[in-house]
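Hey, can you fold this one?
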Amino acid sequence: MFTRIVSVLWLSLVLAVSAAAPLSAQERSGRDLNSEAAQAWRFVDASDSKELETFIKHFGDTFYGDLARNKLEKLSKTTVPVKKGKVEGTYDCRGVNPNGTTYRGTVSISSEGNRYRFVWRISSGQVLYGAGTLQGSALTVDWGDKHPVIYKVGNDGTLRGKWANGTATEDLVPVAREY
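Sure. Predicted structure:
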C-alpha cells in the first residue's frame, strides 16, 4: 500500500510540474519529454482509465502517450459500463492480501431484492461466499470475516475494494459480455 501511495504522489508531482506552466514549442524542444514520460509511466495504473486520460493529456505526443492510448482503448473494450446501482455480472478479480501476497480469480455477483450475492472463485481453488448492500456508490459485502469488503463502484463498472480493515485491496473488473 505504501508503494501505491508513493506511486500516486510521484505521478501527481510529475503531472503537476508538467502542467504548471504551458511550454512553448521552443521550450518543449529543449526538454526530454520522452524521458519525463518514461519516468511517469512507471507509476501509472494502466487499469485506471482516469489515470490514463490524465497521462495522455500531459504526454500524448510521446511514445508513452501512444502506449497509454492503446491501453485506454483496450480497457474500454474489456470493461462494461454499468447502470447506476446495477452491479450484477461476472468480474475478473485481482487483489493484495494483508501480508502483501497477490491473488487472482473471478467473482460472480447476483441480486436478490436489494441484496447482492457474491461468489469468489480464487485461482488457488478457494471458493468464498458473501452478501452485501449498495448505498450510493459504496457496496459493503459481509463475507464471514470480522471486517467487510467495501467496494467503490466506478463509472466504468470497476469495483475497487478494501478489506481486512483497509489493509488489503481488491479490484473487480467487469468481464466483457457478448450480446
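The CA atoms of residues 120 and 126 lie 8 Å apart. Let me know if you want another pass with a different chain boundary.
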